[in-house]
């Protein structure tokens, strides 16, 4: 059974710092990996999706990398801002037919201090 | 595009009452999902529908039923609500072709349900 781990559960950094959020998964046979952002009391917003054949994806100040063989993904946030404060979740999808069941990590709650 | 919409946003029920959570998407997606999110448990899949007319159980289906009314709409029904079903419920959708690994899921804003 696939398990997704995100450590630490919470992180506090000063504004302007470059930071890395980690995501690890136990089964390397994945279809893709998706990073989400969740603001308090809100739904999930998709940030980046990395296909199994890709090594990384970039969107603005965000860069996500994928190393399937080691079961790891990282989300790099450059020049962090208070507006980046949120919970960041990663989720992996197995390569199984039409059963697109995502397995989620429990998220990392990021606080960026002004 | 509104994306994925859910109604209601908030609901309080008494034990034993029934209700239906509504979800609709306007992105022409074929797959739709219902999740629940609980503190310390993360997001767990309740039911999903790979296409109109099909539904399958997820990780925690007990106590729930679903209906894929058409391609746009996917509803979740609680027949006899229990306090253990107090949670935040999210609907999501994606466009899965079966051959492409670009299967990005988009989420609705959630329904916050309390069962007393």
Describe this structure in words.
The complex is a heterodimer of chains A (114) and B (116). With 114 residues, chain A is mostly beta strands. Chain A has no helices and eleven strands. Chain A has strands at 4-5, 10-14, 19-25, 32-38, 44-51, 56-59, 62-67, 72-77, 86-93, 103-104, 108-113. In chain A, strands 2, 4, 5, 9, 10 and 11 form a six-stranded mixed beta sheet that branches. In chain A, a hairpin with a 5-residue loop joins strand 4 and strand 5 (44-51). Chain B is mainly beta. In chain B, 0% of the residues lie in helices and 50% in strands. Chain B has strands spanning 4-7, 10-13, 19-25, 31-38, 42-49, 56-57, 64-68, 74-78, 87-94, 106-107, 111-115. In chain B, the strands form two sheets. In chain B, strands 2, 4, 5, 6, 9, 10 and 11 form a seven-stranded mixed beta sheet that branches. Chain B is globular. Chain B starts with a strand and ends with a strand. Chains A and B meet through strand 4, strand 5 and strand 9 of A and strand 5, strand 9 and strand 10 of B.
Overview features:
heterodimer; A: 114 residues; mainly beta; 6-stranded mixed beta sheet; 5-stranded antiparallel beta sheet; 0% helix; B: 116 residues; 7-stranded mixed beta sheet; 4-stranded antiparallel beta sheet; globular
Multimeric status of the protein: heterodimer
Order of helices and strands of chain B: EEEEEEEEEEE
- Number of helical regions of chain A: 0
Task: Summarize the amount of helix of chain A as a percent range.
Answer: under 10%
Rg of chain A from C-alpha positions?
14 Å
Q: Radius of gyration of chain B over alpha carbons?
A: 14 Å
Q: How far apart lie the N and C ends of chain B? A: 36 Å
Q: Provide the β-strand percentage band of chain B.
A: over 45%
Helix content of chain B: under 10%
Class based on secondary structure composition and strand pairing of chain A: mainly beta
End-to-end Cα distance of chain A, whole Å, is 41 Å
H/E series of chain A: EEEEEEEEEEE
Question: Which chain pair shows the most residues in contact?
Answer: A-B, 27 and 28 residues
């Amino acid at each position: 059974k696939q398990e997704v781990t995100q450590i630490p559960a919470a992180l506090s950094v000063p504004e302007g710092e470059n930071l890395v959020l980690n995501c690890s998964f136990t089964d390397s046979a994945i279809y893709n990996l998706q990073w989400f952002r969740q603001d308090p009391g809100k739904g999930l917003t998709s940030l980046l999706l990395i296909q199994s054949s890709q090594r990384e994806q970039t969107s603005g100040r965000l860069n996500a990398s994928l190393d399937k063989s080691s079961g790891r993904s990282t989300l790099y946030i450059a020049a962090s801002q208070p507006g980046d404060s949120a919970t960041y979740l990663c989720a992996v999808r197995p390569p199984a037919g039409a059963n697109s069941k995502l397995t989620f990590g429990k998220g990392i709650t990021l606080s960026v201090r002004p | 595009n509104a994306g994925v919409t859910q109604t209601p946003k908030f609901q309080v029920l008494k034990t034993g009452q029934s209700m239906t959570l509504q979800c609709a998407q306007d992105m022409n997606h074929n797959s739709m999902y219902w999740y629940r999110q609980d503190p310390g448990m993360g997001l767990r899949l309740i039911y999903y529908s790979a296409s109109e007319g099909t539904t399958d159980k997820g990780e925690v289906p007990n106590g729930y039923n679903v209906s894929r009314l058409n391609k746009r709409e996917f509803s979740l029904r609680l027949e006899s609500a229990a306090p253990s079903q107090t949670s935040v419920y999210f609907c999501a959708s994606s466009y899965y072709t079966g051959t492409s690994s670009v299967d990005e899921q988009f989420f609705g804003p959630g329904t916050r349900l309390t069962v007393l």
